[in-house]
Write a structure and sequence with these properties.
Elements lengths: L4 E3 L11 E3 L6 E6 L5 E5 L10 E7 L5 E9 L24 H6 L4
Antiparallel strand pairs: 1-5, 2-3, 3-4, 5-6
Amino acid sequence: MPAPRFKGTRLEGMLKAPLRRCQGCGEAVIWAVTDNNRRMPVNATLAVKGVGNLVLWYLVDDQERPIGQQRVSSALPDYVGPLWISHFATCSKAGLFRRSQAIRGETP
């Protein structure tokens, strides 16, 4: 079996990951895995031009089927494809999910 290939971000790539709802604000999010193997919520809608800084991508096998989880990385400065934004940057309830506040028992 050939080695998996990288598949760059495509609009239909968003559909490879199931949409979920944020437990804080209820907005649609895509859960992706960062370069550090941590799960990160990403807004399910494309970022407004000039605002987004993330690229969604996934690996595919030789028959173009996605393998593994949706991945997210920071966009390089010369990247010209669709951009996304972390849901933590736009969620009105993001403070509920900050680890340091949760550990101390603080409420936003």
